[in-house]
Amino acid sequence: MKSIKIYGILAVILLLTFSLVGCSTKGKSGAGDTVKIGGKNFTEQDILVYLMAGVIQAKTSLKVETKTWLGGTLVVSKALDRGDIDMYPEYTGTALTVQLEQPPMNDPVAVLDKVSKEYKEKKSITWLKTFGFNNTYTLSMRKSEATRLGIATLSDLAKQAPNLKLVTEPEFLEREDGYKGVQKTYNMKFKETSGMDAGLMYGAVKDGKADVCDAFATDGRIVAFDLQVLKDDKNFFPPYYAAPIVRNDTLTKHPELAEALNSLAGKLDDKTMQQLNAKVDLDKKASKDVANEWLKAQGLI
Q1: What does the pLDDT look like over 115-129, one tens digit per residue?
Q2: 20 to 30 Å CA-CA from 118: which of 182, 201, 205, 281?
Q3: pTM for the full model?
Q4: Which residues of 209-224 are buried (b: 16+ CB within 10 A; e: fewer)?
Q5: What are the φ/ψ torsions at residue 270 (nearest 5 degrees)?
Q6: Residues 6+ apart with CB under 8 A from 34
Q7: Pair 277, 47: CB distance under 8 Å
Q8: What are the structural domains of the chain?
């Protein structure tokens, strides 16, 4: 009888032990099955976040948490470095000049190769394949005003700049691949410069409250507001091809992410991205809805 009691007690202990181990394992697995995607504070990034989320959810068993509109480049990149997020969409030219603090380069392949190598070695972050579009910086103004003043290039603009007002995103004013670099390359100095939210600066130029704005090449408001993109005749701006960048430890844990995200590679050209941006900025559709509609149309989800 004594031995039966001892065996019974041991059986209960073993059952409790396995139950606790099972609960612990389940908890860790649940945490590891969620990936976090971050994004910067403008429309295109919002759309890209949901495109990335859509293919991950469709092609893997992972759960996705989106953290959109986190802030500018430095805010989002630091969140990735800390592990607060697992990935976000970045631009090759931004990575080269802002993150790596390297001078601008014009060869798109060379830029991608350089940032891919440096990020892997110095930051333990992997660049996956690019989406396909090049969202380079531009300076733009009303077509009617550009025609009146005879401005077609940035060199032309430099001659007229002392009489004009420039509005840009605050980040552009401080970047070496932004206004600082443009000033040096073109010897350009405006009568007045001011930082403004991207959602307002296009309208300010359209309504004549400002003369020139920095603009993303893929922004739908360029066409809708009848703005003219001025030619970068000295080829100052580097290429800004967008791609998902992912922490190496996340890819090691979930290698299936690479295949899922690379299903977007080469699918978005400049015109397509411009159209998607316009649906959000002009038609007032939700970024998530725009992203999912496009993914379904492409047969990706």
Answers
A1: 999 999 999 999 999
A2: 182
A3: 0.81
A4: ebbbbbbbbbbbbbee
A5: -60, -45
A6: 62, 63, 64, 65
A7: yes
A8: 34-134+239-297 (3.40.190.10), 137-229 (3.40.190.120)
